Amino acid sequence: QPVSLWGLRLGALLALDYARAPALPVSSLMLWQPVHSGAAFLTQFLRLRTAGAMLAGEEGGGTAALRAALAANEVLEVAGYDLHPQLAQAIDALKLASLAPPAVPVHWFDLAASDGRPLNPAAAATVAAWRAAGAGARVQRPTARHQPPGSIPSGNCQMQGLCQALEPGRENDPSDRSWSRTSPTNSRDSACHRAT
């Protein structure tokens, strides 16, 4: 039975990597604020250990030393988790731009600090690379602004886009590479924009 994959941050890279040769057919992908480089994410993760060592008054050696330990097939404990060299190597090799999705609906949610903000250069370059590879995605840009507890404005693009992406039977044409957007009547709730 086909599955839909929802990946958050690094999980988006893992979902795209899985979709290249899935054990089960993938019907759609939802990528929430995906990281663009597995290597950069791994470096940030290793910094948790160096920060912990500094707070404990120990010599951590920096991320270069930790990477050298992984290269020597050493298992590292980072923030309470065991990081195995094979997993680190696999994460290190992942790049969003090179993981063009298969021909299924792809919903990419990229949070914006305010309305009207364009995609950052890395995200725009990734979309261009995917298009060059014959793939596409619907990119939605919900704004990360405060909402009162329990309040979901009817025009909020974040909720509209999420519900549409999860709605059974509502499949977008994977060949349509246009950008998703909504046009709420209240401009305060406008959270998605067509990018050019």
Features:
196 residues, alpha/beta, two-stranded antiparallel sheet, 6 helices, 35% helix, globular
Structure write-up:
The protein has helices spanning 10-20, 38-55, 62-71, 85-92, 121-132, 157-166; strands spanning 3-8, 26-32, 76-78, 81-83, 106-109, 138-140. The protein is α/β, with parallel strands linked by helices. The chain has a 4-stranded parallel sheet with strand order 1-2-5-6, with helices on both faces. It is globular. The model is unreliable at 146-155 and 170-196 (pLDDT under 50).
Secondary structure elements and pairings:
Layout: E1 3-8, H1 10-20, E2 26-32, H2 38-55, H3 62-71, E3 76-78, E4 81-83, H4 85-92, E5 106-109, H5 121-132, E6 138-140, H6 157-166
Helix pairs in contact: 2-3, 2-4
Summarize the structure.
This protein is of the alpha/beta class and 196 residues long. It has six helices and six strands, in the order βαβααββαβαβα.
- How does the overall form come out from the CA principal axes? globular
The main β sheet shows up as:
4 strands, parallel
Instruction: State the low-pLDDT regions, or none.
Output: 146-155, 170-196
Let me know the average pLDDT. 78
Strand order of the largest sheet: 1-2-5-6
Helix and strand run: EHEHHEEHEHEH
**Number of H/I helices:** 6
- The end-to-end span amounts to 37 Å
Provide the helix percentage.
Answer: 25-40%
Helix/strand structural class? alpha/beta
Radius of gyration: 19 Å
DSSP strand tally: 6
Strand content: 5-15%
